[in-house]
Amino acid sequence: MMKRFALVLLALLYALSLLQAQTVSVSPRDNGQALVNPGMGWMLYYYSNVLDNYGSQLLPEDTVDEFEGVGVVFLRLPWAFLEPEKGKFNWEIIDSPAQRWIEKGKRIALCITSTENWTRQGTPQWVFDEGARCYEVDGFLEPEYSDRKFLQAVEHCVEALAERYDGDPNVDFVAVGHFGMWGEGHTVLTTPKHGKEWGFRTKKKYIDIYTRHFKSTQLCISDDIADPYIREDHFKITDYAFKKGVTLKDDSILVQPWPNSWFHDGMAQQFWPTLPVILEHEHYLGSVARKAWDKELLLRSVEDYHASYMSIHCWPHLEWEENKDIIRRINRRMGYRFQLEKAEWPSEVKRGEAFTITSSWKNAGVAPCYRDGYPCFTVKNDNGGIVAVLVNDGFNVNVLQPAAPGEAEAVETVQDCNIAQVFSNSKGNFSRVCQTGEFSVYVSVGKVDGTPVYELPYDGNDGHKRYYLGKITIK
Fold first, then answer.
1. Rounded-to-integer distance, Cα 471 and Cα 465, Å
2. What is the distance of C-alpha 254 from the center of its chain?
3. pLDDT value at position 54?
4. How far is CA 235 from CA 141, 200, 207, 257, in A?
5. What pLDDT score was predicted for residue 196?
6. 347-384: per-residue pLDDT in tens?
7. Percent of the chain scored above 70 by pLDDT?
8. Nearest Cα to Cα of residue 122 among 64, 178, 175
């Protein structure tokens, strides 16, 4: 009896070993590197308040490649420099620096301001010459934001801006600008001095102007348009922006020391589940001088806001050199980070016969991916030629939700596959010509047609965002 039992057990173990040998199972290891992906990343401030800050002093060939995780170049510039004469736009001031980073596969973001205290006026003089009212405060001009002629000029500017950039895949977002100091929606530096305040009805008009013309590109608005210092989760104006699909940009990070390092992480909870949250830390050197800079708090702000973007608000080489340790830690959390926990497929498949690939995915970032993405397993020969493209069009990675560090849950998906399917009719069988032999399997995430879009945190990149996993034999 024992002998028979032992023989049965050996047979089962042998059968199990054969089954295991027929399946390839891989669990790739996250290499910890920064990812440059759509809808997330560090934002290099090329223009900030004036044209000298911060990237515009870089040589034309200097795209700050050593700063890991830079995905966006932010161009925030006064309206007076963009449209110095009515209807005559200086697009070169945007497009020249933009192309330097677009060539590297990165994107841009835009903000047009009408009030600056770094220079006398952000609004073009011709707007005031045509009768738009303004105030003089401490030597700079602030427009009367509710003035009809001023609003008409703003609308024409935004219309031209949208005609040129709305829907451009190289533009990640556009800020609802033109209102408040530095386009940030607040008037705390001016209102007490001229006694004028602007309420919901006026602020709403700027949201309406931008949403009227930008139909495709993501818009954002500063949290300060509500109130820079009051800790509330909901304000009428930011709730209105959310309803219009305008996301949140918080410009208060590390302006002051703790416990006032930021004010509106509660407000962000309404936005981040469906819209990307954008953070701007204080001018780095100013924050350091006020003893407000804290590396751990910078990381905490990304966690608390579930942020997809963080600014580089300083000379970029300097900020990188003095903060590369925390930047690298932030890169492993900011935005989304797709991880393939496990993938399994048969070691051998017969051409034309169905088989399955099982894979488990999770998001190790702090935010969802707000765009579509589909896993794809690409089979390639030794010369790098594509033999088969197997897209899991039934699984969209935008369903992967973020969690606390190390606590993201994996989601398993099974896809039916067929390489060179055989078709039959009365005149015989037909199949696509397909090589047989041993091939390499690569994984990617991208469009539903198999075009890779997203970087993954793995070695073995084929140069097209496909990552080597293992082998498969087609018989």
1. 18
2. 22
3. 95
4. 28, 10, 15, 25
5. 87
6. 999 998 999 999 999 999 999 999 999 999 999 999 99
7. 95
8. 178
- pLDDT above 70: residue 2: no
Whether 199 and 236 have beta carbons less than 8 Å apart is answered as no
Q: Which residues neighbour 71 within 8 Å (Cβ) at sequence distance 6 or greater?
A: 36, 37, 38, 40, 41, 42, 43, 106, 107, 172
Model-level pTM greater than 0.70?
Answer: yes
DSSP letters for 63-94: --TTSTTEEEEEEEEEHHHH-SBTTB--THHH
H helical segments located in 166-283 = 191-194, 200-213, 236-243, 265-271
Q: Which strand (E) or helix (H) includes residue 115? A: none
Place of tokens 């830690």: 329
pLDDT of residue 15: 45
Amino acid at 181: M
Q: Is 324 helix (H, G, I), strand (E, B) or coil?
A: helix
CA distance 181 to 115: 5
**Under 8 Å between Cβ of 413 and 361:** yes
Distance CA 192, CA 19 (A): 77
Name which of 252, 250, 253 is nearest 238 in CA terms: 250
CATH architecture of the domain covering 41-331? Alpha-Beta Barrel (3.20)
Query: What gap in Å lies between CA 117 and CA 137, rounded to an integer?
Result: 9
Of 413, 429, 412, nearest to 421 by C-alpha is 429
Burial (CB count within 10 angstroms: exposed 0-12, middle 13-18, buried 19+), residue 287: buried
Three-class SS state of 48:
strand
Task: Pick the closest to residue 194 from 267, 239, 142 (CA basis).
Answer: 142
Amino acid letter, residue 298: L
pLDDT over threshold 80, residue 20: no
Q: 395-447: per-residue pLDDT in tens? A: 999 999 999 999 999 999 999 999 988 788 767 777 778 889 999 999 999 99
Average pLDDT, the chain: 94
Domain map (residue ranges) of the chain: 24-31+337-474, 41-331
pLDDT computed for residue 18 by the predictor: 44
Which H or E element spans position 245? none
**Span 24-31+337-474: which CATH code?**
2.60.40.10
The radius of gyration of the chain from alpha carbons, rounded to an integer in Å, stands at: 27
Amino acid present at 254 = L
